[in-house]
Automatic annotation (TrEMBL):
InterPro entries: Aspartic_peptidase_A1, PEPTIDASE_A1, Peptidase_aspartic_dom_sf, TAXi_C. PROSITE patterns: PEPTIDASE_A1. Pfam families: TAXi_C. This is Peptidase A1 domain-containing protein. It comes from Eragrostis curvula (weeping love grass). One of its GO terms (molecular function) is aspartic-type endopeptidase activity. Coiled coil: none annotated.
């Protein structure tokens, strides 16, 4: 996975993206989809005081897991903050919406990346 602070939404290979999109649409079936939103899965959330957004996590090698913030780490302006990056052989790219409320630590010497939740409050 590439971590890209300049990219807004996260790009996932097709199988992962389609599975996520399907699960989110099923979990958020109570909310109307926008037919012409800026991303593939956008909702008209006008008039809703609260919105139930499913939890999404990334699991990395070595047992590391990050739980994305709800709803800010999942939705951007009512749209699922993910898009398809390409075929399954494509690399996933972690966009900045999914990095909200995380401090991202780069240990260049040991070739490791760390995420610290709620570090930006």
């Amino acid at each position: 996975m590439i971590i890209d602070f300049g990219r807004v939404v996260t790009g996932l290979p097709s199988t992962a993206y389609n599975a996520l999109k399907s699960a989110v649409r099923q979990a958020m079936a109570a909310y109307p989809l926008l037919p012409n939103g800026p991303l593939e899965t956008c909702y008209n959330l006008t008039g809703y005081r609260t919105v139930a957004v499913p939890k999404v996590s990334f699991e990395f090698g070595g047992g590391a897991t990050i739980n994305l913030g709800v709803p800010n780490g999942i939705l951007v302006e009512g749209c699922l903050a993910f898009e398809m990056s390409g075929p399954d052989a494509s690399v996933a790219v972690l966009g900045n919406v999914n990095q909200r409320n995380f401090e991202v630590l780069f240990d260049v010497e040991h070739a490791k990346v760390g995420f610290r939740a709620n570090a930006c409050k």
